Amino acid sequence: MLLSTHSPIVVGESKWPEVVIVRNQTFCEPQNSGSPTREQINSWYLSRFGGEGVFARSLLLVEGPGDWEFFEAIRRRIERVDEDGVANQLVVLSVGGKCSFAPWLRLLRSYGQAGNRPINWLCLVDSDGALNIRKAYRDADFSVPQDLSRALEDVDSIYKDLKRGERANISSDDWVTASEQANSIADVKGMSLHLAPIDLEYVMLSEITLENAKLFAQQIGCQIDNVEQLLKKLGSKVDGRASSDSVKDVWVRGLLGEQIKNDQISEHTKEIVRRWLSGVVSADRAADIVSLDW
Hints:
Shape: globular
Strand order of the largest sheet: 4-3-5-6
Order of helices and strands: HEEHEHEHEHHHEHHHHHH
Strand content: 5-15%
Number of helices: 13
Low-confidence stretches: none
Helix content: 40-55%
Distance between the termini: 40 Å
Structural class: alpha/beta
């Protein structure tokens, strides 16, 4: 038997049925699915990407490496100012795209019971993936409440109307509002999913000043006249469609996470961080940490 408080190498060298998570003096052994294929899949995910995740108290599952860079930068900023070390219990994990959440949900579900999991998690997906994340939860045998299911369908419908440009009365503001409504329902219902209103780029930049947006644009080698141009340059679907010449470099997201001024970190970002923190601390303590000057 090997015991470790933080080594993903130990996990990576083990098979999923051998990895036991200990929380609050309770041994959480993986629940055998009875499927050799599932055992192989879970072992593969643990050995390749999930080794660090099993040591988290609260896991933020994101689509891709750009999301990882931004929220890891935010986590490190919190780590520098929070004296309780809460940020050390947070881990960001990239799942590989909006259609790739289900295997991770199955893996996480295999430990503990509903309401008493050794690892809490929050799935963060761009709003164009509303139906993808619903499918992921269903594929992982989670029940999605009807009101949340309908709210996710509303988000998807607005996105498709905006993308087609067929309805003049539909705007990106409607898309944001619908996403926020779905997130509110998910939070109340205890469903660990969150839609990034529009996308990561909008979440990052929705409250940045034009002056700072121009300075950041210069750093990455482009010129802009307004914030929306920077959004589009970074690949945002703010008007329903992504630009074909966008800058999708992963390091750009990390740089923004490091440099964006605290008073310009969006409320969307803070809400994601609040829900992420709530997997470790009380709601009041999470709100206090979010209010700090990162």
